[in-house]
């Protein structure tokens, strides 16, 4: 649907696991070309899918490691669309889904699809931390469909708020800091909106104090968003393991499709 809407080339890619195929060759000796028939059958099915979707598409089946083959096929200027869940729940729970593992390594934007595409995206929620690169998230959200309703969500907090309270800073003064942080975030979203689309009101600003993942998921549900656009920043492995990134939480729990943009890549380009 996106390829047809934006005039993009579309390729359907299916990876046959080489290790699984080698195992089949060991288990099934007759007919001797059984494994090759499996690959040929997958190719036929994918070609039929390509012919049935209503948008010109090519079909390609590759044999190898699933993750490595997908990554090797992704140019930096492409959009990778993948399903949200794999076929092996136990392994996915331990290692993360293919989509989650791709997020950590893929340089191009990734669209994680949860719902069957019934219509074009109409309500988009862009999640921004207001650090450098946030403009890329808004720009990509605005480019999906100029007719879509757009909102931008930001979760803020007062730095060292607990320490301020323990140091005897009054509740009134802390509230004033909160109000100032709120206004700064609103102003920043309006400025980014004007930079991206020439209109400070292009994105409805949603600013609340609290946990970013909760804010994104709650307002995504309240707005009936059909797509969340979120930037991914590189995190230290230990931090991601102990705390879990906002991106990972949204990817795991969002009720709609999620488009992930690698912000280091966006800044470099």
Explain this structure to me?
- This protein is of the alpha/beta class.
- The protein folds into two domains: 1-73, no CATH class; 123-268, Rossmann fold (3-Layer(aba) Sandwich).
- The protein has helices spanning 2-6, 18-27, 34-52, 66-73, 89-95, 98-105, 134-144, 161-166, 171-197, 212-222, 237-242, 246-253, 263-268; strands at 11-17, 58-64, 80-83, 110-113, 123-127, 149-156, 204-209, 227-232, 257-262.
- The strands form two sheets. The chain has a seven-stranded mixed β-sheet with strand order 3-4-9-8-5-6-7, with helices on both faces. Strands 1-2 form a two-stranded parallel sheet.
- Strand 5 (123-127), helix 7 (134-144) and strand 6 (149-156) form a beta-alpha-beta unit.
- Helix 4 (66-73) packs across helix 6 (98-105) and helix 7 (134-144) packs across helix 9 (171-197).
- The longest helix has 27 residues, at 171-197.
- It is elongated, with a radius of gyration of 22 Å.
SSE topology:
Elements: H1 2-6, E1 11-17, H2 18-27, H3 34-52, E2 58-64, H4 66-73, E3 80-83, H5 89-95, H6 98-105, E4 110-113, E5 123-127, H7 134-144, E6 149-156, H8 161-166, H9 171-197, E7 204-209, H10 212-222, E8 227-232, H11 237-242, H12 246-253, E9 257-262, H13 263-268
Parallel strand pairs: 1-2, 3-4, 5-6, 5-8, 6-7, 8-9
Antiparallel strand pairs: 4-9
Helix pairs in contact: 4-6, 7-9, 10-12
């Amino acid at each position: 649907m996106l390829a047809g809407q934006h005039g993009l080339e579309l390729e359907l890619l299916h990876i046959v696991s080489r290790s699984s195929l080698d195992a089949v060759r060991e288990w099934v000796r007759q007919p001797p070309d059984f494994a090759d028939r499996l690959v040929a059958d997958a190719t036929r099915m994918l070609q039929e899918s390509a012919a049935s979707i209503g948008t010109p598409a090519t079909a390609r089946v590759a044999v190898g490691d699933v993750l490595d083959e997908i990554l090797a096929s992704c140019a930096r200027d492409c959009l990778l669309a993948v399903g949200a869940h794999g076929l092996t729940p136990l392994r996915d729970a331990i290692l993360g889904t293919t989509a989650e593992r791709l997020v950590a390594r893929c340089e191009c934007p990734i669209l994680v699809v949860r719902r069957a595409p019934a219509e074009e995206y109409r309500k988009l929620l862009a999640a921004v931390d207001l650090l450098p690169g946030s403009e890329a998230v808004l720009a990509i959200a605005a480019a999906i469909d100029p007719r879509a309703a757009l909102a931008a969500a930001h979760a803020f907090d007062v730095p060292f708020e607990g320490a301020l309270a323990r140091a005897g800073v009054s509740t009134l003064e802390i509230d004033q800091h909160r109000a100032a942080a709120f206004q700064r975030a609103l102003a920043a979203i309006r400025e980014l909106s004007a930079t991206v689309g020439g209109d400070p009101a292009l994105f409805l600003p949603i600013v609340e104090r609290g946990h970013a993942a909760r804010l994104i998921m709650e307002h995504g549900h309240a707005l009936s968003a059909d797509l969340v656009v979120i930037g991914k920043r590189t995190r230290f492995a230990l931090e991601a393991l102990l705390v879990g990134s906002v991106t990972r939480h949204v990817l795991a729990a969002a009720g709609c499709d999620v488009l992930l943009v690698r912000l280091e890549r966006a800044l470099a380009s």
